[in-house]
């Protein structure tokens, strides 16, 4: 069933032009500071990890360095793992979870895995608590080398420049009530389409790659996170956000086809986390701990069951 929903930018049924885009931009005030919340924590970690500036964005005179941290003593005999957060800037526990992992748990994996971590992929959106970048583009639908989101293409270039195959990539996300109250209505308005309401799942879940499913890997992460926070149940149709639940707390997307961040390494083991910070059954601190637990469980599984340096199996 198709429903309509008023969004205060644009004319219903008509895609946005430059005037509407500027109107939308005017509605995006800076609500928090990347240079206060994120950059100092990255700089504090630079005495333990190699810090790199892998790109820069400049939107209407507001410039942001895109920062990553990597294992200082790279060992080509060890497996390589990528952790990303803040692809959607408003998903706070993705950013803070990546930083908390580096601060509190990454040392546990020293000499066992080469880590590369990009804690806040979309700084402009982080500051606006928004899903899109300055151009009203969702980076997480545009991870392709020729794509329009600089945040995405810069991360692709970082991965390519690493020069070694990744065995694992975990991308840290949230699903929030604002998805349904703001971002999906904005998407419909931007594209001149009718808004069709959906359901926000209450709890943590994972998104596997339908082109490269790794069910044991996903369940290892779910089992660890379930000790921290609750797992989202399927809805009455057996789905989470419109996708069939294939296992406890797991759905699948075609990552490369959709241009999602999880496709960029070609790693054998990939997953996207989704926590629900608006649930009455949890809070921000628990969501952060769930993200850290997910990263650690993913690494533990890969170290136990993966082979160093391998990417996706050829079969």
TrEMBL record:
Gene3D superfamilies: Zn peptidases. InterPro entries: Peptidase_M14. This is M14 family metallocarboxypeptidase. Residues 30-315 form the Peptidase M14 domain. It comes from Sphingomonas colocasiae. Belongs to the peptidase M14 family.
